[in-house]
Amino acid sequence: MPADTQSLLQLVSVFNLVKIFTVLTLAFFCTLILTPLWTRIIFKYRLGKQMRPADSAPVFHDLHKGKEGTPTTGGVLIWATVAMLTMLFWTLSHFAEGFWSRINFLSRAQTWLPLAALVVAGVLGFSDDLLGVLRRGPRGGGMQMKLKIGLYTLMGILGAWWFYAKLEFNTINIPFFGDIFVGWWYIPFFVLVIFSTAFSANETDGLDGLAGGVFLTMFAAYSVIAFDQGRINLVAFIAAIIGSLIAFLWFNIFPARFFMGDTGSMSLGVTLGVIAMLTNTPLLLIPIACIFIIESGSVIVQMLSKKFRGTKVFLSTPIHHHFEAKGWHETRVTMRFWMVSAIGAIIGLIIFLVDSKIPPLLR
Questions:
Q1: Are 27 and 85 in contact (CB under 8 A)?
Q2: pLDDT digits (tens, 9 = 90+) for 58-71
Q3: Most-buried pick from 164, 276, 290, 333 (CB within 10 A)?
Q4: Contact, 220 vs 212, CB < 8 A?
């Protein structure tokens, strides 16, 4: 490779790193700046968490009755910051040449769909949070589970149609085997991924800092995957989420100043699923999102056991409440779940990086 070409590639690589860390840093500080403003709003309008009735979840109620009234909808800080920064950079790129045109990361191929998923799911989740605050819905707990399932499925169908019909995605990558053609089966698989990540994110958001820390490791893992694939705009988008998440966790770790709420868990869960499909690495969610699988799996097992056996397997679900009921302090549960999530993310990255170095002829 000629020396001038090599120098140019190094310069591009350096600028890409500058772009990524600039976006991450700005997202972090923007979220910190917006936090006092949003906090005043949620305190002023008393957007506090309402506990489920004691008769419907006695163990959960006893463990968390002291948290009733803690402001929720904190997740707005994450997706709103990312959306505002994205649109700000895009706008500046049209009026200023040079740095701002290069720092813009909004692109049709890489970030339109994740951004749309983030905002749309965030707005729907915010609506659910408001219903809960107003004690509307079944037992005053917000949207019916059937309605939530329908919304998750609808978002999955819309995304699947776009990926399959517009982007012509019809293969699924299986690590160490390569891309496997699945044809129209891609659509129900896509819906399953989006539904699973959205549902599991909602179940994981139950302790101070738990969902935020787990999301942080998962998005960090997918930033490495996207970087290795050369999707720099997508990496910058994920960096904005990571920066906002770090600032959010500053106020969300125990004792939480506010909760993420469905507006945060739904938006981040759906976006994670979209990014997994966009990078064609959905099966890597198995190790990377292992906490999601454990949390939602415990809920499913508990429901089936109560229905067919008439007894409970866990003291309370999702499983983080089970460990609380056994006497673990919630910070102990949170930190250990963070560790498991980090280990899963590392395993997923190892699988991806090893698989990416295997020549096609050897598959």
A1: yes
A2: 666 566 666 766 78
A3: 276
A4: no
CA nearest to 74, candidates 122, 26, 118: 122
Specify burial of residue 328 (Cβ count, 10 A radius: 0-12, 13-18, 19+). Answer: middle
- DSSP helix/strand/coil, 172: strand
Other beta carbons within 10 angstroms of residue 291's beta carbon come to: 28
In a 10 Å sphere around its CB, with 0-12 CB exposed, 13-18 middle and 19+ buried, how is residue 293 labelled?
Answer: middle
- β-sheet bridge partners, residue 306: none
What's the pLDDT score for residue 110?
Answer: 93
The span from the CA of 102 to the CA of 84, in Å, is: 17
CA dihedral 137, 142, 145, 147 (to 10 degrees): 80
At 357, list the tokens: 């170095």
Mean pLDDT lowest among 139-143, 159-163, 171-175: 139-143
83-139: pLDDT as tens digits: 999 999 999 888 776 666 788 999 988 999 999 999 999 999 999 988 888 777 666
The C-alpha atoms of residue 186 and residue 192 are separated, in whole angstroms, by: 10
Q: Which amino acid is at 316?
A: S
Residue 95's CB is within 10 A of a number of other CB atoms, namely 8
3-state SS, residue 341: helix
Q: What is the dihedral of CA 280, 160, 275, 227, to 10 degrees?
A: 40
Of the listed ranges 77-86, 99-108, 215-224, 304-313, the least confidently predicted one is 99-108
Domain boundaries, the chain: 3-167+187-277
